[in-house]
Amino acid sequence: MNDPTAEPALRATAIGQRFRGNRALHDCDFELPAGRIAALVGPNGAGKSTLFHLMTGLLRPTTGEMRVFGAVPGTRAARTRTAFISQDKPLYPQFTVAEMLAVGRRLSPRHWDQAKAERIVGEGGISPKTRIGTLSGGKRTRVALALALGKQADLLLLDEPLADLDPLVRHEVTGLLMAEVADRGITVVISSHVLPELENVCDHVLLLQGGRIRLAGDTQDLREAYTRLTGRADPDTPDGLPPGADRAAVVHATTTGRHLSALLRNAPGTSLPSGVDEHWITRAPSLEEILLAHLRSAPRNAAHATEAAA
Amino acid sequence: MTGTLWLAWRQQRLLILTAALLVTALTVWVALGRADLIEAISGYDLSQCKGWNGECPPETYGAMTESNGGIRLLGAIGLALPAAIGMFWGAPLIGRELESGTIKVVLTQDSGVRSWFAARFGLAALCAVTVSTAVAALIAWWWAPISNMYDGVYWHDPYILNASGPSAVAGALFALAAGTAIGLLVRRTLPAMGATLAVVLAVAAVLTYFRRDFVTPVDRITPGMQPKRLIGSAWSAGYRYLTPDGAQHPLENCLFSGEQLRACMDGHGFVGRVHKVYPSSDFWTFQGIDTTVYLLLALALVALTTVRLRGRRLG
Fold first, then answer.
1. Which of A54, B78, B101, B146 has the largest count of CB atoms under 10 Å?
2. What is the domain extent for residue A286?
3. DSSP letter assigned to residue B220
4. Residue A305: inside a domain, yes or no?
5. A269 and A151 co-located in one domain
6. DSSP-based three-state secondary structure for A283
């Protein structure tokens, strides 16, 4: 899957985006290899939707460049390989479901799979003759998904597709996506401000905060690059950490009473941070713990350096 | 292109149907009204009633005057047509797509923004031209048998000068282009509709008030106290007094008639009177000005729209 000569599905180089003088994104650099399912995670207002609009070519970056399989987003070469569902899942309320699918069939005829689109809609118990405007939120998401999956794109961009869906529909939608991934080996970027709904699904993560990429990489590599430390706080150090621990490797540490809990970066080539001995309870952190530690350690100023995964 | 054209048709078919119904209803109305008019004026010699100051016999006048109301109402509809096209066809053309976010669905399909815009604007423009041509022609057709008749509808009335002829069609195109561009810039349908109405009315008003500045009226000179030549079908642009050196002086110098006027003219050394008029042939000059201005503006607005669409901020 990881052929080094293959074009990455996405490559962002020094992306910066300004809206009327406000910086929405800055110095965003990342690469997403083809075939990955990437979670784009970040708090509300972090710039996730802006990043999606740059990936689809609906927006052009103020500085830097974005590439989709090597092509400029918005060009024909990139458009035919990309499918996008934006956060508001816009559809034409006056159209019937069949007409909405016809938009995909007629405007994206190149790889359109009508049978698949109809099946996705049909499995949700939606009649093709129903007006979009009368559908519930969950069913509307299903139609939007049918429109995106019917296009048979190589890169699927989903901006908070699961927000405001009930757990049952959420499960259904995730199932549809996973079936598509298993079937066609496509690349997916799926954003959320809640990680747990993505943790079991994704194998790559992009953490966006305050318009910057804080963390990017393979989830397994990330988990192996950090250690979670818990135990009694060391009474001899002001921060409660072991005296010998490399303070530069600390991502985030908190003490509650005498209890310390911290996330540290491992020393290169080892599975433990330097200066931490076996008196401490250590374990590989969950992805959520890594992301939360990074979010909590957020510097208030924007001059924080981007951390790349090992 | 066929896909985007289908989408344009699917989204505009209600407007197209409405426009078709409107044109059909107007055609029936005008056909009946004009038939009544032809019947009413048959047997009368209308040549006596041509122009203002005509020696129009009361019976002839009565026969043709009944249609004036209808022609004026139709003209008013023609006057409102560009604004309506700009508001209801132009402003939502891109504005509603931006407002609802559906532009994000459409512009991430295989077909690009150029084909999408060309199809929907092309279809809208075709309809705007068809509808405005039909209405302008209906106005001209009903008005023709009693054009420029005594106390009737004259060529320089806005009902005719603004609402018929090629300038009416150009005005509709301009309004459509203005609505489309404003919708793209404002990104909300309702405010875009309001702004479009304001812009279309403002341009029409500016043209109406300033187009005469670009056309020199004809001077009709009557020496001394001779009776002035009747205005006929011409459009008066005011009176002046003439001195022997050929200079013209404002009317306010002698606001008298009869013996008082003679004394006043002698006192100022005026040797004749000048009536500045636009002859009815100037209809085409004014139409030419309006048409040129509207078409240039429409072209500029379409260019602005395509440039803005390409340098996009559509998300």
1. A54
2. 221-296
3. E
4. no
5. no
6. strand
Tens digits of residue pLDDT in A51-100: 999 999 999 999 999 999 999 999 999 999 999 999 999 999 999 999 99
Same-domain pairing of A66 and A122: yes
Q: Is residue B55 classed as helix, strand or coil in its secondary structure?
A: coil
Is there a contact between B312 and A74 if contact means CB atoms under 8 Å apart? yes
**CA–CA separation, A266 vs A309, rounded Å?**
11
Residues A128 and A243 in one domain: no
Which of B7, B110, B312 lies nearest to residue A59, judging by beta carbons? B312
Residue A82's Cβ-count burial label (10 Å; 0-12, 13-18, 19+) is buried
The residues, ordered by sequence, that sit 6+ positions from A70 with a Cβ below 8 Å of its Cβ are A7, A11
CB B238 within 8 A of CB B251: yes
Residue contact B315–A86, C-beta within 8 A: yes
A180 and A37 in a common domain: yes
Instruction: Tell me the C-alpha distance between A184 and B101, whole Å.
Output: 29
Question: Are A26 and A147 within one domain?
Answer: yes
Classify residue A2: in a domain, yes or no.
Answer: no
Instruction: Clarify whether residues A125 and A231 are in a common domain.
Output: no
When CB atoms are compared, the residue of A53, A86, A108 closest to B109 is A108
pTM, whole model, 2 decimals?
0.90
Same domain, yes or no: A146 and A271: no
- Given a cut of 80, is residue A138 above it in pLDDT? yes
* Structural domain contains residue A143: yes
* B313 has pLDDT over 70: no
What chain A residue is nearest to B103 in terms of C-alpha separation?
Answer: A90
**Same structural domain for residues A290 and A176?**
no
Number of Cβ within 10 Å of residue B305's Cβ equals: 22
Contact A151 B109 (CB under 8 A): yes
Torsion sign, CA atoms A212, A215, A216, A219: negative
Domain boundaries, given as residue ranges, for chain B: 2-213+281-310, 217-278
